[in-house]
Amino acid sequence: MSRRDWLWLALVPAIIYCKGLVHASDKRRLPTTAQRQTQTVTTSYDTINGRSCYRSIAGMNQFMKDLAANYPDLVTLETIGESYIKKNGNNNDGRSPGYDIYALNITAANSTRQSSEKGKLLITSGIHAREYTPTELLARFIEMLIDGYNNNNAQITSILQHTEIHAVIHYMAENFSSTYWRKNMNPSGCKNEDFYGVDINRNFDFLWGDESGASSNPCADEYHGTGPNSEKETQALVNYAMRVFPESQRRSDPEKQMDDALGDDIMGMYVDIHSTGEYIYYPWGHRDKTSPDDDAYQAIARKMSHYNGYDLWASGFDFVYPVSGDSSDYMYAVMGVSSMGLELGFNFYDNCDTFEKDILPSNLDVLLYAASIAGRPFSLAKGPDVLDVTVVKIDGELIVTAEISDGVMVNSLNAEADHLTGDQDIVKVVVYLDVHPDDFQEGDLSWEMSPLDGEFDSSEEVVEVSLSMRDLSAGRHVLHVQAIDFDGYLGPVKSVSIEVEKEETNSPSNYPTSAPLITALPTSTSQSPNPTISPTLTTAEPIGILTEAAPPSKPNTTLEPSSDPTTTSSPPNPSQSPSLTTPSPTLHPKTTSFPTTLSTATTTTPFTSIPSNTPTNVVSSSLSTNFPTAGQTLPINVSSQSTTTEVEDIRNENSSSAVVSGLRLMMMTACVLTSWMLYQLS
Question: Is the CB of residue 149 less than 8 Å from the CB of residue 107?
Answer without folding.
Answer: no
